[in-house]
Write a structure and sequence with these properties.
Blueprint (H helix, E strand, L loop, with lengths): L1 E6 L3 E2 L5 E9 L1 E12 L6 E6 L6 E2 L7 E6 L4 E6 L8 E11 L4 E5 L3 E5 L2
Parallel strand pairs: 2-11
Antiparallel strand pairs: 1-3, 3-8, 4-5, 4-9, 5-6, 7-8, 9-10, 9-11
């Protein structure tokens, strides 16, 4: 069994910064892409940033230049560094990972979600 555990959501003022973390654990053979999605109230879930196993990270246009995704392969962890936060960044942020487990099964996993609220 493989699971994702997220942390880091909080209430932050506009212009502030926050870092989200997501750690994958369990019967992992390899991890392909890891990334972050978000869902604001009344809106569909959208991609924020994704880090493939190879190549460069991809970002939503709305967060380019403000958010940075990074990955620690040794710890099976992905981070989302968010700066210059805006009220419209308020959402539940979900970690996503595409994993091959030790039984050679391809799994797409979601974290439980962590709430980021940007408000004064």
């Amino acid at each position: 069994q493989v699971q994702l555990v997220e942390s880091g959501g909080d209430l932050v003022q506009p212009g502030g910064s926050l870092r989200l973390s997501c750690a994958a654990s369990g019967n992992i053979f390899s991890i392909n892409a890891m990334g972050w999605y978000r869902q604001a109230p009344g809106k569909e879930r959208e991609l924020v940033a994704i880090f493939p196993s190879r190549g460069r990270a991809n970002y939503a246009d709305s967060v380019k230049g403000r958010f940075t995704i990074s990955r620690d392969n040794a710890q099976n962890t992905v981070y989302l560094h968010m700066s210059s936060l805006k009220p419209e960044d308020t959402a539940v942020y979900y970690c996503n990972a595409r994993v091959v487990d030790t039984q050679n099964r391809y799994l797409e996993l979601w974290g439980q979600g962590t709430l980021v609220t940007v408000s004064s």
